[in-house]
Amino acid sequence: MNFNWKDNLVLIAEDDPINFRYLELLLSKRTGIQILWAKDGREAYEKAINHSGIDIFLLDLQLPELNGIDVLKLVKKANPHLPIIMQTANSWNDEEKACYDAGCDGFFPKPLDINLLLQFIDDLLKVQANNKTVKQTVV
């Protein structure tokens, strides 16, 4: 299944270059989405609040500098409407509940179910597009 997200931008916060490259290849080939990379939590936070064109945020739970939960809370405080999907290899210690309690919009354990992730992102992007249309119509 392929999607056309060429007019969208995703921020991927991933400290492992191999995991980032995997997501980059998958998303660029199957969706055409533009990709912005953050290699640690502090960089992810700064990019998320300083780059106004981000449509969706894929956030790894375990990041250096600032962990994923802290980044999630800070970004949601600054931009509550930005959809944030948490991803982690450690989904056995109530991380999923902690992420949802902190405000994430989705949670995916690694290894990622790519088809499920792509469909979930597509659904979130459609909601985002509808919200932008409603805001423009109201103004």
Percentage beta strand? 15-25%
In CATH terms, what is the fold-level topology? Rossmann fold
Q: CATH first level: which class? A: Alpha Beta
Q: Tell me about the largest β-sheet.
A: 5 strands, parallel
The CATH architecture designation is 3-Layer(aba) Sandwich
User: Poorly predicted ranges (pLDDT <50, ≥5 residues)?
Assistant: 134-139
Beta-strand segment tally: 5
Radius of gyration: 14 Å
Shape: globular
CATH superfamily assignment? Response regulator
The percent of residues in helical segments reads: 40-55%
Strand order of the largest sheet: 2-1-3-4-5
What would you call the structural class?
alpha/beta
Question: pLDDT average, as an integer?
Answer: 91
- The helix count comes to 5
Span from first to last CA? 36 Å
* Total number of domains: 1
Helix/strand order, N-terminal first: EHEHEHEHEH
Any descriptors?
139 residues, disordered C terminus, single chain, Rossmann fold, alpha/beta, globular
What is the strand and helix layout of this fold?
Elements: E1 9-13, H1 17-31, E2 34-38, H2 41-50, E3 56-60, H3 68-78, E4 84-88, H4 95-102, E5 106-109, H5 114-138
Parallel strand pairs: 1-2, 1-3, 3-4, 4-5
Helix pairs in contact: 2-3
Q: Could you describe the 3D structure shown?
A:
This protein has 139 residues and is an alpha/beta fold. It has one domain: 3-Layer(aba) Sandwich (Rossmann fold), CATH 3.40.50. 50% of the residues lie in helices and 17% in strands. It contains five helices and five strands, in the order E-H-E-H-E-H-E-H-E-H. The chain has helices at residues 17-31, 41-50, 68-78, 95-102, 114-138; strands at residues 9-13, 34-38, 56-60, 84-88, 106-109. The protein has a five-stranded parallel β-sheet, with helices on both faces. Strand 1, helix 1 and strand 2 (34-38) form a beta-alpha-beta unit.
